[in-house]
Predict the structure of TetR family transcriptional regulator.
Amino acid sequence: MAGRAAVPEVIWARPERTGRGPKPAFTRADIAAAAVRIADAEGLDAVSMRHVAAELGCGTMSLYNYVPRKEDLYELMVDAVGAEHELFEPTGDWRADMLRNAEETRAIMYRHTWVPRLMSGLFGFSPNTLRYLEHCLACLEPLDVPAGTKTELIALLNGVVTTYAANDIATIERTRSMPWSEEEENAVRMAYLGSQVATGAYPRLAAAFMEQSGPVDLEAVFRRALERLLDAYDPGLR
Amino acid sequence: MAGRAAVPEVIWARPERTGRGPKPAFTRADIAAAAVRIADAEGLDAVSMRHVAAELGCGTMSLYNYVPRKEDLYELMVDAVGAEHELFEPTGDWRADMLRNAEETRAIMYRHTWVPRLMSGLFGFSPNTLRYLEHCLACLEPLDVPAGTKTELIALLNGVVTTYAANDIATIERTRSMPWSEEEENAVRMAYLGSQVATGAYPRLAAAFMEQSGPVDLEAVFRRALERLLDAYDPGLR
DNA sequence: CCTAGTTACGTACACCGTACGTAGTGCGCT
DNA sequence: AGCGCACTACGTACGGTGTACGTAACTAGG
């Protein structure tokens, strides 16, 4: 009468050890770190149970003692990089603080290009996520709006950061396993875009396409978008 | 001296047929429709080359005559649902028009819950995407800002729609292959969140948690976020 | 002490994407 | 007219995946 749990489970609610039996050889942090190492070096698709187990030097199935499903491994990974957020002392300038938080999130995503792909699709209430949320709320203390509005602002900011980073990073991640470079891929896609625009079927798009001179400064675009968003929540500007 | 193309390729740049040899048994639209049907009914993970081929009634490897890589199949799928956008005549009220566009995008994602997962990670210049982009630019004609700012706004709106829908939809998609329901999963996760908040480690989060009475109206939150975003780009409000 | 709950892990299964080889088909060129 | 070649179709096979299940070793609680 064993049977696996036919009921959902949050990995964070499961204690790391239960006291009985041999001492576990690894901690959750060990496993997360190994998976992150692999994902950073070889891409998210290289993160397989076998590969992670090999990195740790244990049998594949032993991993399942720590992580009931692979998806939980993903949750460990996201939580692990969440620890890279610097939870600085709020300065009292909520705009500056939130900008700093957003820039940091963006930096983390560029350090770990697989994060955006995992972020959408995760419920995201891991310990480090909660800590970061609390930190953001602390930064927003000076902002005089209801708490609900604050969490909405945080969600919106995070969403925008993720969106921008994901779009920018997607090509990098995709070309990782391809025999051609990111630049080649972009060139081909841009060439197609150019050919389509040249048909005249998209006049306004063509105009926008022509207007821009030189490559887009994504960093600047990103910062502008953030400023706009903060404006929209700034009571001093309405 | 055959060898596969060692150079990137955009599926949309490849012609549907080349004239020589037997007539293809299917069109790209057939294949996309079959894949969409499977994804809608059984989830994105059920979309395998074998499954799609079976749905079409042909051998697995025959698919590769139409679609060089599985990722291209994904692009076909995204483009196919992109056709569901109603390209209405702009009313002159750019805010209302863009709201309508966003709501429609959201509706499409709820109809095809696998779309968000594919959206992030795709470069996204398929024919229907281009058409939709052009349509948005048409809606933004009355807005007196540079074309670059308009595309930024469109990107931002789409990003936010995707993010919000993704978060909301993730649980549905995830529980599809699980032996428990979406509600059960959500309940377990909320219980964990509550237990964490109750530890007192996250006072501000706790306050925000307590403040809300009853379940969150995601639709309303979404609409508020959109309004804020539009505010951020509305010259009349600055 | 003993036993129940763990950890560890080898084996096995069903499924995946897709490289490759072969056979048949019909357009384009000479 | 007829040859050749580019194309479609598709069976087989390979190396990978997540993970269910069974067995052996181990240790804390009663």
Summary: The longest helix of chain A spans residues 147-175.
